[in-house]
From TrEMBL:
This is ATP synthase g subunit family protein. It comes from the Eukaryota. GO terms for cellular component: mitochondrial membrane; proton-transporting ATP synthase complex. The lineage of its organism: Eukaryota, Metazoa, Ecdysozoa, Nematoda, Chromadorea. Keywords: ATP synthesis, CF(0), Hydrogen ion transport, Ion transport, Membrane, Mitochondrion, Transport. Belongs to the ATPase g subunit family. One of its GO terms (biological process) is proton motive force-driven ATP synthesis. Signal peptide: none annotated. It comes from Loa loa. It holds the Pfam family ATP-synt_G. Its main location: mitochondrion.
Length: 133
């Protein structure tokens, strides 16, 4: 009669296979991640700024000349996805910066000093209006 392998033994065997697979793949994946990190996430250098300015100028020319109406659907879809990605990264950075998804934490008794002085110096003249005869 064969011995039945238990659940934990199966999990341990699977974990061993996964570990050995990733052990052989780790150097290649690490090099790939490092290459992507250096190419995609570093800020532009001084030598790259002229190309950035040129691309921005081209984008503004496309908008002002309305030549985007000649784009294919695929071009439009790709450029829209890139724009949405940039906008989403902006909002993710904002959420990380304020450490909250809901918004900035403002005390309940906070009153803006400028607004408080405006209210204090405001003369309510709604009752000074003479009735129409």
């Amino acid at each position: 009669m064969s011995k039945q392998i238990g659940l934990f033994e199966k999990l341990a065997n699977a974990a061993g296979h996964i570990y050995r697979h990733h052990l052989t793949q780790h150097p290649r994946r690490k090099a790939l991640w490092k290459d992507c990190w250096h190419k995609e996430l570093k800020p532009p250098t001084l030598e790259e700024w002229p190309a950035v300015k040129k691309d921005f100028r081209q984008m503004m020319d496309v908008i002002t000349s309305r030549s985007y109406t000649q784009w294919t659907v695929m071009d439009t879809l790709v450029r829209t996805c890139v724009a949405v990605e940039i906008i989403c990264w902006f909002f993710v950075g904002e959420a990380i910066g304020r450490r909250s998804f809901a918004g900035y934490i403002v005390p309940a008794n906070y009153v803006d000093k400028k607004l408080a002085s405006m209210v204090k110096n405001h003369k309510d003249n709604t009752y000074d209006i003479a009735p129409k005869a």
